[in-house]
Amino acid sequence: MFTIGQLANYAGVTTKAIRHYHERGLLIEPGRDSSGYRRYTAKDAIDLVKIRTLAHAGVPLARIKNLLDADPDALAAAVTEIDLTLQDRIAQLERLRDQLAQLQGGDRLYVSPEVADHLDALRDIGVSERQIQLERDGWILMQTASPEDAAVWLAEKHELIADPEFRALYLDHDTAYHWSPDDPRLPGLADRTREWFARHHSRSETRPVQNPAVARLAQQSQPEASSPAWDRLAQLVGKE
Asked: CA 118 to CA 45: how far, in whole Å?
């Protein structure tokens, strides 16, 4: 005869686990003897080892009770089914591990390799992380909902960044984000911007947008896509 502590030590489980098995109806809870202790038999020890073995193998507790006294064929069928479930779970965990590994790649988890390369190129020329995150969020939306538009815009953005004059304007606009709306440098930046766009034709501006609703969403979903200085700059650029 065993006390609960002795039974736990024998089977390699905790007394808490034994009590839990009692609550789940997996292991019959014996009555107390005259000294107030519960006494367990050899059969209880055998049943507990079976329960522990099945539980450690990944069998849900809800199924263990039916398997304790199952015939060999029923047990084999149940084990096969459980094994298939575990294989699916392992595959799912492997996919999660792959996603975690991709997190080390930063932007590459969320956007295409082409867009990620573009964002890296922006970092290389000194664009702020704030601006890069704004671009990334916009690309996430556009590539998901309108890949045709995103491909055209990305190709054009590559060409623009390769233009030294546009690149200088881009960096100056990025820096101007934190300026005061009364900063005396804004009118000059507005003039340069207006003059550059007057000399250059944009393919994406004349091409019909495949999904204009998403384009609007991309603007609305970025609360940091404007600042008092940028609002003032937009007003100045719009003036004739």
From this structure: 65
